[in-house]
Write a structure and sequence with these properties.
heterodimer; A: 114 residues; mainly beta; B: mainly beta; 12 strands; globular
Chain lengths: 114, 112
């Protein structure tokens, strides 16, 4: 069974802390994505990566950075967490090039910043 | 740019009722179209997809037909069950990097 796993289901951090969210996929997918999901706003793309060490900004990259040192792992970093980054974070992956391929999602990390 | 507009929710139906969730899109070229479902406490999972005009995607009794002339991909099910209660997302992809544009999601609640 294909799988995307995220390091934590729930996380509570304090304002100003550096936060790492980890995502691992076991499907040898080239593409990986980080989204945040907020009520009434749907899914918004933060960053994506189409290859190791490659990354591109999504729609809302401010306040976030990412790292992809290995193909299977894509990390989202909040350099200095703020309360407006309280949200559900979803990681996804998809196969190669071409736009017929669906995305596979992890279970999400619900982050609360106090 | 790309956009996906979904029927606003929430939608509440009785068991065995007919379901339609409308989805229309704006995109250049010939996008692939997807419906994802998110059950409570979980991530999204693919429900069905269609990759060219007039294709019909189907899964678990759900269907959607890719209508290029009306730029639509409406989700239908003939008889919903309580277990279909979830959030449904319409999405499109038209880039080789696999990026997708998602609608805002429609929450469906099915009552026994």
């Amino acid at each position: 069974d294909v799988k995307v796993t995220q390091s934590s289901r729930y996380l509570v951090k304090r304002t100003g802390e550096k936060v790492f969210l980890e995502c691992v996929q076991d499907m040898d997918h080239e593409n990986m994505f980080w989204y945040r999901q907020d009520p009434g706003l749907g899914l918004r793309l933060i960053y994506f990566s189409y290859d190791v060490k490659m990354k591109e900004k999504g729609d809302i990259p401010e306040g976030y950075s990412v790292s992809r040192e290995k193909k299977e792992r894509f990390s989202l970093i909040l350099e200095s967490a703020s309360t407006n980054q309280t949200s559900m974070y979803l990681c996804a992956s998809s196969m190669g090039s071409g736009y017929h391929n669906e995305q596979f999602f992890g279970p999400g990390t619900r982050l609360t910043v106090l | 740019g790309n956009s996906v507009t979904q029927m606003e929710g929430p939608v509440t139906l009785s068991e065995e009722a007919f379901l339609t969730i409308n989805c229309t899109y704006t995109a250049t070229g010939y996008p692939s179209l997807f419906w994802y479902v998110q059950y409570p406490g979980e991530g999204l999972q693919l429900l069905l997809k269609a990759t060219k005009a007039d294709d019909k995607g189907s899964n678990k009794g759900f269907e959607a037909t890719y209508r290029k002339e009306t730029t639509s991909f409406h989700l239908e099910k003939g008889s919903v069950q309580v277990s279909d209660s979830a959030v449904y997302f319409c999405a499109l992809s038209n880039t080789n990097a696999g990026k997708s544009t998602f609608g805002d999601g429609t929450t469906l609640t099915v009552k026994p």
